[in-house]
Specification:
Helix content: under 10%
Order of helices and strands: HEEEEEEEEEEEEEEEEEEEEEEEEEE
Number of helices: 1
Strand content: 35-45%
Number of strands: 26
Shape: elongated
Oligomer: single chain
Largest sheet: 9 strands, mixed
Low-confidence stretches: 2-27, 43-50, 346-358
Mean pLDDT: 81
Radius of gyration: 24 Å
Length: 358
């Protein structure tokens, strides 16, 4: 082989390697191809559609996760970004198959993973990370008969750690081609329970809980929700979205529930919300408005407002569940207690389980 031929061969090989992580049409800088094969997991103590719990192919289970690779700085694209974007699907909830084979090199790359996968566009560059569109309306519905199925999608982002709310970067290379990706909740979950107060006579006809809304008072709105699309940062789950003064959770017609008996609070409303910081400004309290009435009619609906509303100004952390326990008296509703747990927490310890969603 003459010197000119050797030169052209060298240039050709260099161009092949320069593209970084690409599909199986690219040569790796290892002796044999090394394809990306992640596994996906999460921890949850909630069993529901719209709440991550398990993988699979039936209704209410997630079987498709987006994956995208950048250079290790977290945002710089390789020569052809489309060649490092793919989806992984499962047919049994355990084994994941990529729509495209990504042949890794010895150079490290930053891996992003997310749910839901919308369209075929690659994540957009934003600062030092990548983002995807997010939609979080201020009004949600829920199925009162299931206690966990709400209309809001449970947005997830990938982390190298299973600690709730964690954002440890995931790196891959030919020497680390099978990382475990823990899907983290980008939203917080609110659950409202109600029990009758001592001395309150239960009313099995007019005490059905139709909806619960939270509304800010004077000052700056603290909730983030809008019918227009916002964004989700894939590195740490940060949500960018317009603010609103009120968020509402409404029972689907015919599914509203009655309060529980004294000492046995019953879930009556729930939903997913954007995280928020603690608000210690006394001029900006949050009030809870509860609508009760007949299950099949609205003629006699009435609205009660929580008297201890300022306690709703606490922080809402992503990946955490906030259970507000209320007591219903004859003409008022009071806040009895607030329970805060990571979704990974269970009675008796923690347990890793695979993802669920609708």
């Amino acid at each position: 082989m003459n010197k000119l031929s050797i030169f052209y061969l060298f240039v050709f090989c260099t161009l092949l390697l320069a593209g970084g992580c690409t599909d199986d049409g690219c040569l790796s800088d290892t002796d044999t191809p090394v394809f990306l094969q992640p596994s996906f997991s999460t921890a949850s103590n909630v069993s529901a559609r719209s709440i991550v719990n398990e993988t699979g192919t039936t209704t209410g289970q997630v079987n498709k996760i987006g994956v995208y690779l950048t250079r290790t700085d977290g945002h710089t694209a390789y020569a052809d970004p489309a060649m490092v974007y793919t989806t992984f699907t499962t047919t049994n909830g355990t084994t994941w198959t990529g729509a495209k084979k990504l042949n890794l090199r010895t150079e490290q790359a930053r891996l992003y993973a997310w749910y839901p996968v919308i369209g075929t566009d690659v994540p957009t560059e934003s600062g030092t990370t990548r983002i995807i569109p997010l939609l979080l309306p201020a009004a949600q519905t829920f199925d009162g008969t299931s206690a966990t199925a709400c209309s809001q999608i449970d947005y997830l982002y990938g982390s190298a750690s299973n600690t709730a709310g964690d954002a440890t970067a995931i790196t891959v290379s030919a020497n680390n081609a099978s990382p475990t990706v823990y899907l983290q909740h980008a939203l917080a979950q609110l659950v409202f329970t109600i029990e009758y107060k001592a001395g309150r006579v239960p009313d099995s006809e007019y005490d059905y809980v139709k909806s619960i809304s939270l509304t800010t008072g004077t000052g700056t709105a603290v909730f983030r929700a809008a019918n227009a699309a916002g964004t989700l940062a894939l590195n740490d789950g940060t949500i960018t979205l317009a603010t609103t003064a009120t968020i509402t959770f409404t029972a689907i017609a015919g599914t509203s529930q009655l309060p529980g008996n004294i000492g046995a609070p019953k879930p009556v409303a729930y939903g997913l919300v954007a995280p928020k910081a603690k608000d210690e400004t006394s001029t900006n309290p949050i009030s809870l408005n509860l609508v009760l009435g007949q299950k099949s009619a609205s003629t006699n609906d009435r609205t009660l407002t929580a008297a201890n509303a300022a306690l709703f100004n606490g922080e809402w952390k992503k990946g955490h569940r906030y259970t507000y326990n209320l007591q219903l008296d004859k003409n008022d509703i009071t806040l009895k207690s607030v329970e805060i747990k990571a979704w990974t927490e269970k009675d008796g310890g923690s347990q890793d389980v695979p993802p669920v969603i609708e």
